[in-house]
Predict the structure of Adenylate cyclase.
Amino acid sequence: MDPAGLPPLQGESGRRRANDARRAISAVRLSTVAVLAALILPAAGLVFLLRPDYAAVHWTSPSLHFVFFLVVGFTAASLALVTGEAARLRGDARVFLLSLAFLAISGFMALHAAGTQHVLTDESLPGFTVAISVGLLVAAPFALASALVDLRPWLGPAVMRARPWLRAGVVGALVLWGAWSVGNWPPLDAITGEGPSGDALEIAAGLAAVAYVGAAARLWWVHRERPGFLVLSVVVCYILLAEALWGVAAAGERKFHPSWWVWHAFIVAGFLLVFLAARREWRDERFRPLYLPSTREQRREVSVLVGDLAGFTSFAEHRDAAEVAAMLRAYYEVATPLIARRFHGEVEKFAGDGIFATFNRRGDQPDHARRAVGSASALQTEVARIRNARPDWPGLRVGVNSGPVVVSEMGGSGYVVYAAVGDTVNVAARLQAAAPVGGVLVGERTRALIGDAAPLVPTPRLRVKGKADEVDAYLLQPTTSGTSPGPARRRQI
């Protein structure tokens, strides 16, 4: 038995596996030490500063307080923005809830800075004074939810469906608190310190601190085998926020006392640590280590659009490369906004002269088949318009098919794609190859989903490459009005 407690392994591969195991164990031990240090050292510093020896020590600097917390507030707001965008792009509920926690704390921190006495106002406004504490209380449920959202399969999709309302709720709370603070209306006018006063608020602060610790413990447990710097930074940030709440309770009345500066520094350190960790990650997927398993691989019914230029190879063979690039640019410049903005699909990739797009990747487009067919029809209309001016340019063939796929994370740090994989994609590609130039071939499942929304003509059963059985397909007919079937509109009630 080796020192790591592993059975002996023979050969070169066995030695490599043993070394990898030792490195993993060492990483876990080091990360555990880092988390424990983050838990113990700041709290020990605060306890030290609460001693009577420091009772008469104060350092008052309103201008520094204003600038410092305004800058840190904007730093935290930037984290809220980038985590929110990552969550939107990948449909990840954990990262979205993390963004709400950052948004709440950063917003209330900015209010706290704006209310610094003798900077923007000479009047003491208690609502601004306690804003950081309020932000910590508001953010705690979101932090805990971010760590627990993977416990039930339905929680993540439910959170993402409620995304606009949750974000609006946080922004609304910020606006309401700011307005109430400016008016200095009851009960805010009775507040004297920066911490919670009264049994109910002290209990709320205690529960919020427990929520942060619970979130840190759960996140650590989920990623305990390979925590990584980003995960560790969020774990430590949650612990520091919990300790900040404890600091509020212990030193909230000691304004500009060393202990007062220390519990403020807990919050600052937590945000800066996450900011630095995110900076170290690969730019396009900074928060990928936090993604839920359901984000990394999920089953969906989607509609797939595959387009390809007929005769592109021979066209490129006899033309200057700059002209070929200009032709592709002209087509893609109309295709991308048409698919992404007008029909809200996702252009997954360009492959030479081909385009691949999906609809309903995040499960929020029940009319995905209509969107895909409408997009294909509109795309052919735009390509025909371009070819009227350049008839020598190649035409487009399009195939559309609907059905189940697995959207799976592929790649690693430096390049990651979330590819739709399955027979649905293969059939869409085969329909494209069988479509006439300027035409759109639609699969059987797509036809069933759109019903009578578009004029379709059955084609003879197709035998396509790679399929043992013949495939039912339907040719989309041009509409007399020149319009295309768009997304289904909600019925007015």
About this structure: The longest strand covers residues 396-412. The two ends are 72 Å apart (CA to CA).
